[in-house]
Design goal:
The complex is a heterodimer.
Chain A lengths: L2 H26 L24 E3 L9 H5 L5 E7 L17 E9 L18 E3 L14 E3 L5 H28 L15 H4 L6
Antiparallel strand pairs in A: 1-4, 2-3, 3-5
Chain B lengths: L1 H6 L3 H34 L15 H11 L10 H18 L17 H22 L3 H32 L4 H7 L16 H25 L11 H4 L9 H26 L14 H23 L7 H28 L1
Helix pairs in contact in B: 2-11, 3-10, 4-5, 4-10, 5-6, 6-8, 6-12, 8-10, 8-12, 10-11
The chains are: A alpha+beta, B mainly alpha.
C-alpha cells in the first residue's frame, strides 16, 4: 500500500472502528446489569463453599484432631477427664464422650478456610457453614468460643477429677503397702522401656 | 430579555440577573450531566451505578456537590499559592464567559455581539491558561505534565475548530451566533450540516463538505474539553488526575463544574453552527422562543450524551497520535473543505 493510500485507509478505518465500538457499547445500556445490590440482594454461593466454621459442641469428644490438623493453629481445645461415675452421654454417632471440654476456641481471624479440620473429625461436629459476613470492630470478637460449660461446671469437674485421682492414688498406695513388693526395678517400672519409646507410631 | 428589562427598570439589576441566569443553568445542568455520565458509564459496563440516594440515586450528584463543598481546601506546601488559588477560577471564568454569546432562544442571548464566535474561541483559550496555571502552580510532576499536555492539545485543536468556524462563517456571512442560527431556520433541511438553506444544486455539492466539517469540529470539540479518547491532560492511569491532582474540595469542584460547563459549551457551539441552534427541526411546527430553549438544550444534550458514550467506548490516544490527528488529518481536510466551500459559494 502506498503511503497516500495508507493515509486514507487509516482515516476510514479509524472512523469505521469507532462506529463498530459504539455499536457494541450501545446495546449494553439496555441489558440487565451483571451486578446485584449486595447487602439487600446476595449472590448464590457454591454449595460446598468454605466459610465460617461451626462446632456442634454436643457432639465433640475432645479428641483434638482438628486442632492438630489446623495449619495456622487457630483452634485451641482444653479438656478435663471425666470420672467413671459420671456419664457424659453419647454423640449423635453413638461415640461415648469421655472428656469435658471447658475450652474450644477458634480464632476465625487466623482461620484460612482450608477445611482441613473438617475431615479428621470422627463425629463430624466441626463444619464449614455458608455464613461469610462476620466482620467485627474488635479483633477479640473474632475469637469464637464454642464450649458450653460454665465456670462452676469447670470447677466442679476439675475438683471431681482431682478427688478421683487422689482416691486412685490412695488406693494404689494402699495396695502397694499390703502386697509386699519384691525387689524394685525388675517387675514394675514407672518409666516405659527405651524399646517401647522408639517404636514408630502406628497409623 | 426585553421582558425582564420592562419589569425591572434598573439596568444594573437587569444586567446582574441576566449574567446570573447561565450560572443557575450550569449548576442544574451539571447535576443532570453528572448523573447521566455515571449512569451511562455504569450501564455500558453492565453495572447500575448509584441506587441508594433517592429513586435510582437521583440525589447523588447533590450529595457529591455538598460533600465537595464541605471538604478541606488543601494547598501543597511548596505550591505557588496565589496561582494555585487563582487557577480554578480562571478556568471557570473562561467557561462561563462563553455562555454570554450562546443563543439559547430567539429572544435570549446574554450578549448579542457581532463577533460572537470569535469571542467564544478567545474565551476557550482562557481555560487553557487556567489549566496550565493549575499544573504549574501545583509543583507536582503529574500536574505539570497534565498542564503541559493540556496546553499542547488545546492549542493544536483550536486550529481545526477555528477553520471549521470560518467555513460556517463563509456560508452564513456572520460571526454572530444568533444570526447564524436564524440563517438555518426553517426545518432540518436548512441546517448547515446538510448544506444550509441554499438552492438545491449548490446545496447538494456543499453537503459533503459541510458534513465533513461538522465531523471534524465534533472531534476537535471532544479534544478541547479533554475527554476520552483525548483525555491526556487528566489521564488517570498515567498522571493520577493530571492538572487537578493537588486540588481538593471547593477548588476541585470548580474544575469539575468548569469541565462539565465546557462540555455543554462545545456541544452548544456545534449545535448552533451546524444543527440549527434553537430552530425547530420541523420548520414552523413547535417553534417559538420557549420551544427554542427546548430544542437548543435537547440538541446540545444529545451531543453531550454522544460524548459520554464515546468516552466509555474508546481507549485513550497516545500523545503523538493526538498530534497526528490534529495536524495531519483534521487540519488538511479542513483546508480542502475551506477551498471547496469557497469555490462553490463563489460560483
Amino acid at each position: 500500500m502506498s503511503a497516500i493510500a495508507k493515509y486514507f485507509y487509516n482515516i476510514f478505518h479509524s472512523l469505521y472502528t469507532v462506529v463498530v465500538g459504539m455499536k457494541i457499547t450501545f446495546p449494553h445500556l439496555f441489558t440487565r446489569s451483571a451486578t446485584v445490590q449486595y447487602p439487600t440482594v446476595k449472590m448464590k454461593i457454591p454449595e460446598r463453599a468454605r466459610n465460617r466454621l461451626y462446632v456442634n459442641i454436643d457432639d465433640c469428644i475432645g479428641c483434638d484432631q482438628c486442632a492438630m490438623a489446623c495449619p495456622v493453629d487457630c483452634i485451641t481445645i482444653e479438656t478435663i477427664k471425666s470420672t467413671p461415675d459420671v456419664d457424659l452421654g453419647l454423640t449423635s454417632k453413638n461415640t461415648k464422650k469421655r472428656l469435658y471440654i471447658p475450652r474450644f476456641d477458634i480464632d476465625i481471624a487466623k482461620c484460612c478456610y482450608c477445611g482441613l479440620c473438617v475431615w479428621p473429625c470422627p463425629t463430624e461436629c466441626i463444619v464449614m457453614t455458608d455464613v461469610y459476613e462476620f466482620s467485627e470492630f474488635d479483633r477479640q470478637n473474632l475469637i469464637y468460643s464454642f464450649s458450653n460449660m460454665t465456670e462452676d461446671e469447670v470447677g466442679a469437674a476439675t475438683a471431681r477429677l482431682k478427688k478421683y485421682e487422689e482416691e486412685q492414688a490412695a488406693k494404689k498406695a494402699a495396695a502397694k503397702a499390703t502386697s509386699t513388693p519384691p525387689a524394685t526395678g525388675t517387675a514394675v517400672s514407672p518409666l516405659p522401656t527405651p524399646v517401647q519409646k522408639s517404636e514408630p507410631p502406628t497409623k | 430579555m426585553e421582558f425582564i428589562q420592562s419589569i425591572l427598570a434598573n439596568e444594573l439589576i437587569v444586567a446582574i440577573i441576566l449574567s446570573l441566569l447561565p450560572l443557575f443553568f450550569i449548576i442544574i445542568y451539571a447535576l443532570i450531566v453528572l448523573y447521566t455520565e455515571m449512569k451511562v458509564a455504569a450501564h455500558i459496563q453492565d453495572r447500575v451505578a448509584y441506587m441508594r440516594t433517592g429513586w435510582h440515586g437521583v440525589l447523588q450528584p447533590i450529595a457529591d456537590m455538598v460533600k465537595l463543598l464541605q471538604k478541606e481546601d488543601i494547598i501543597p506546601a511548596h505550591a505557588d499559592k496565589l496561582l494555585f488559588r487563582m487557577a480554578p477560577f480562571i478556568a471557570f471564568i473562561g467557561t462561563y464567559a462563553a455562555y454570554a454569546v450562546l443563543p439559547f432562544s430567539s429572544i435570549y442571548i446574554g450578549s448579542n455581539i457581532n463577533v460572537g464566535v470569535f469571542f467564544l474561541v478567545a474565551m476557550g483559550s482562557l481555560v487553557v491558561i487556567g489549566i496550565l496555571m493549575a499544573g504549574w502552580a501545583s509543583n507536582n510532576k503529574w500536574s505539570l505534565f497534565g498542564g503541559v499536555r493540556s496546553a499542547a492539545q488545546m492549542v493544536s485543536y483550536e486550529i481545526p475548530t477555528a477553520l471549521a468556524i470560518i467555513i460556517v462563517v463563509m456560508i452564513t456571512g456572520s460571526l454572530n451566533l444568533q444570526e447564524i442560527t436564524k440563517f438555518q431556520e426553517g426545518g432540518i433541511g436548512h441546517w448547515i450540516v446538510f448544506g444550509g438553506p441554499l438552492p438545491w444544486n449548490q446545496k447538494l455539492i456543499l453537503m459533503p463538505f459541510t458534513f465533513i466539517t461538522f465531523l471534524i469540529v465534533f472531534v476537535a470539540s471532544i479534544a478541547e474539553v479533554n475527554r476520552t479518547p483525548f483525555d491526556l491532560p487528566e489521564a488517570e492511569s498515567e498522571l493520577v488526575q493530571g492538572f487537578n491532582t493537588e486540588y481538593s474540595g471547593m477548588r476541585f469542584a470548580m474544575f469539575y463544574l468548569s469541565e462539565y460547563a465546557n462540555l455543554f459549551t462545545v456541544s452548544a457551539v456545534v449545535v448552533a453552527l451546524f444543527l440549527g441552534g434553537w430552530s425547530s427541526p420541523f420548520g414552523t411546527l413547535m417553534s417559538g422562543p420557549v420551544w427554542g430553549i427546548f430544542w437548543f438544550v435537547l440538541k446540545a444534550y444529545l451531543f453531550v450524551f454522544i460524548q459520554i458514550w464515546i468516552r466509555w467506548t474508546l481507549p485513550r490516544l497516545r500523545v503523538d497520535q493526538l498530534m497526528y490527528v490534529s495536524w495531519k488529518v483534521l487540519t488538511p481536510w479542513l483546508f480542502v473543505c475551506l477551498l471547496a466551500v469557497g469555490f462553490i459559494l463563489v460560483n
